[in-house]
Amino acid sequence: MEQSDQGDGFVVRVRGLPWSATRDDVVNFFSAVSVMGGPQGVHFTFTRDGRPSGEAFIEFATVDDLEAALRKHNGNMGRRYVEVFRSKKTEMDWVLQKSGQIGAKVDAVVRLRGLPYGCGKEDIEQFFSGETKRYVRDGWV
Question: Rounded distance, CA 101 to CA 45, Å?
């Protein structure tokens, strides 16, 4: 059965990944299986503050690949054991959408601390624009 025959695709959810794991590491973990799109078929999830959660969704090309991937349940990646669960493309899309990873145009996030109370959006944009301004008690000069 090919993916076009099944609307939910061939997807697994993994848990217990090392936080330093890369897409290539995950593809290598499933070395005997064809990950759809290679590293692009691996979709990590992140916590609210942008840190890796240790979980990911992986898309496979066929039902046979999916079944082979499920046999990797509790396999080791480095010192961690990785749990592998059957999932659906709709679940993957929902989780990635909820975490802002689908449709987001942002490549990175910078968290700022210690800003002056009166600092506004325009002040931050001006700061990052490269113009040399400095903040004094009542505003930018």
Answer: 8
CA 128/CA 31 separation, integer angstroms: 43
Cβ pair 27, 36 in contact under 8 A:
no
What is the pTM assigned to this prediction?
0.67
Q: How confident is the model at residue 22 (pLDDT cuts 50, 70, 90)?
A: very high
CB of 55 within 8 A of CB of 99? no
Three-state secondary structure readout of 12-60: EEEECCCCCCCHHHHHHHCCCCCECCHHHHEEEEECCCCCEEEEEEEEE
Put the strands of the sheet holding 42-46 in their side by side order: 42-46, 52-60, 10-15, 80-87, 75-77
